[in-house]
From TrEMBL:
<dbReference type="GO" id="GO:0005634">
    <property type="term" value="C:nucleus"/>
</dbReference>
<dbReference type="GO" id="GO:0003723">
    <property type="term" value="F:RNA binding"/>
</dbReference>
<dbReference type="Pfam" id="PF00270">
    <property type="entry name" value="DEAD"/>
</dbReference>
<dbReference type="GO" id="GO:0003724">
    <property type="term" value="F:RNA helicase activity"/>
</dbReference>
<dbReference type="InterPro" id="IPR014001">
    <property type="entry name" value="Helicase_ATP-bd"/>
</dbReference>
<dbReference type="GO" id="GO:0016787">
    <property type="term" value="F:hydrolase activity"/>
</dbReference>
<dbReference type="GO" id="GO:0005737">
    <property type="term" value="C:cytoplasm"/>
</dbReference>
<keyword id="KW-0694">RNA-binding</keyword>
<keyword id="KW-0347">Helicase</keyword>
<dbReference type="InterPro" id="IPR011545">
    <property type="entry name" value="DEAD/DEAH_box_helicase_dom"/>
</dbReference>
<feature type="short sequence motif" description="Q motif">
    <location>
        <begin position="62"/>
        <end position="90"/>
    </location>
</feature>
<dbReference type="GO" id="GO:0005524">
    <property type="term" value="F:ATP binding"/>
</dbReference>
<dbReference type="Pfam" id="PF00271">
    <property type="entry name" value="Helicase_C"/>
</dbReference>
<feature type="region of interest" description="Disordered">
    <location>
        <begin position="1"/>
        <end position="26"/>
    </location>
</feature>
<dbReference type="InterPro" id="IPR014014">
    <property type="entry name" value="RNA_helicase_DEAD_Q_motif"/>
</dbReference>
<feature type="domain" description="Helicase ATP-binding">
    <location>
        <begin position="95"/>
        <end position="265"/>
    </location>
</feature>
<dbReference type="InterPro" id="IPR001650">
    <property type="entry name" value="Helicase_C-like"/>
</dbReference>
């Protein structure tokens, strides 16, 4: 069925583009986030609103009732388990639903409710008595389009006449035979074909145009060009919306081309990661075996809720997973060769507490936010590709503990001068003491 997400992209060139230093593509990370965001990420940072016309103040809502949605749609929203708008929805929705329609560029980290916001906008503007496409949503990959399709179908399930078409590869249309569906969700290439080659819908009749995951979209030049070409054919009355998880000069330049007419710009900054609440230690070990011994001591000496262990290579990670499993620990192993769905499944199991320990390489750790992790172990310290201390990754790994005011614990293993130097470098970089710990005497941390 539609919920089966395949680990394929629309064409092969996509998966090779824009691979980050850990070998993951932006769209992979983005999809992983989507698969994992089964719950709302409660943002604490403030909303920043930039707009051309300061005389038309934005207002925000605290309830979905205040938006005066049609009954069937409101029912769909509640049926999804949404009680109140998320932070970004509070500010974005009144503007998104206002008349005359207002164009918008919105950025917030994934999981904060953007998809739900634009889905709601499309569904509240659609007229199901008119049997032609009125809303068009572009997503950068097949999988992301499918996810959006599912949300839209789910939210609109009480709108009995609603028809949605998925403009993704393998979906066939007949040339010159007009679509009777109300909403089209798809990837730029297929949407382009449907509009211009097969002529199954009219771009100038679209009333709401959404471009999602703009930061992933721009990492593929072809998509960027196609999106711009599609946008040019829209009518001037069409409401144009662009969403992105990140916000930098490239994204903004693209956003301003896609949404040229006076957009309201809404930004929700990501919470800063810090080492404030985290006690950091290091343990000197002779070698890999010594690290394992130290780890065993730690797990028997202190009671650990959930922990993550980072290894430099897949080989070390699976070696360690085997040894710990043999010692009776419930261990999850996350590594880079797994496809996105497998990774999401393993992270979900860990989140649900089915495993207490998650062993991972850095590659696969992107996109994980597990609130209940109290201990992070760097079995190997993070290094960049050219073997320099990787402070950013260190912060990213460690920063996941000690959240929400809870105290976190980070334990770093060093073996030899090289790794000790790495540790000193990291210590100096953050200006936070990393205390030495004796693996045979762990009283200091309990
Ligand atoms: P984004 O597009 O920013 O990644 P989503 O719209 O996919 O975020 O929302 C993330 C998760 O939170 C989804 O599981 C979604 O169902 C849920 N969600 C969205 N809005 C709300 C809300 N107002 N209340 C509760 N859950 C919500």
């Amino acid at each position: 069925g539609a919920s089966k997400v395949q680990n394929q992209t629309e064409n092969t060139s996509e998966s090779t583009d824009d691979t980050d230093e850990t070998g993951q593509t932006k769209s992979e990370i983005s999809l992983l986030h989507k698969l994992l965001n089964t719950r709302l990420v409660q943002a604490k940072a403030d909303i920043e609103v930039l707009r051309k016309d300061p005389n038309s103040p934005l207002y925000s809502v605290k309830s979905f009732e205040a938006l005066h949605l049609r009954d069937t749609l409101l029912k769909g929203v509640y049926d999804m388990g949404f009680n109140a708008p998320s932070k970004i929805q509070e500010t974005a929705l009144p503007t998104l639903l206002a008349d005359p329609p207002c164009n918008m560029i919105a950025q917030s980290q994934s999981g904060t409710g953007k998809t739900a916001a634009f889905t709601l906008t499309m569904l509240s503007r659609v007229d199901t008595s008119l049997n032609y496409p009125q809303c068009l949503c572009l997503a950068p990959t097949y999988e992301l389009a499918i996810q959006i399709g599912e949300v839209t179908r789910n939210m609109g399930k009480f709108m009995t006449d609603l028809q949605i078409s998925m403009a993704v590869r393998q979906q066939r249309v007949t040339r010159n035979q007009p679509l009777r569906s109300h909403v089209i969700i798809g990837t730029p290439g297929t949407v382009m074909d449907w509009a211009t080659k097969f002529k199954v819908f009219a771009l100038n009749k679209i009333r709401v145009f959404v471009l999602d995951e703009a930061d992933v979209m721009i990492s593929q030049q072809g998509h960027q060009d196609q999106s711009i070409r599609l946008q040019r054919e829209l009518s001037s009355e069409c409401q144009m919306l662009l969403f992105s998880a990140t916000y930098d000069a490239d994204v903004m330049a693209f956003a301003e081309r896609i949404i040229p007419r006076d957009p309201v710009v809404i930004k929700l900054r990501r919470e800063e990661q810090s080492l404030d609440n985290i006690e950091q230690y290091y343990i000197e070990c002779a070698d890999q075996q010594g690290k394992f011994q130290a780890l065993s001591n730690i797990y028997s000496a202190i009671s650990i809720g959930q922990s993550m262990i980072f290894c430099a290579t897949r080989k070390t990670a699976s070696w360690l997973a085997e040894k710990m499993t043999a010692d009776g620990h419930a261990v999850g192993l996350l590594s880079g060769e797994l496809d996105i769905e497998m990774r999401a499944a393993i992270i979900k199991r860990f989140r649900d507490g089915k495993e207490k320990v998650l062993i991972t390489t850095n590659v696969s750790a992107r996109g994980i936010d597990v609130e209940q992790v109290t201990v992070v172990v760097n079995f190997d310290l993070p290094l960049t590709r050219d073997y320099q201390p990787d402070c950013e990754t260190y912060l990213h790994r460690i920063g996941r503990t000690g959240r929400f005011g809870k105290k976190g614990l980070a334990i770093n293993f060093v073996d030899g001068n090289r790794s000790l130097n790495t540790l000193r470098y990291i210590e100096k970089h953050f200006g936070r003491k990393i205390n030495r710990l004796d693996a045979d005497d762990l009283d200091a941390i309990e």
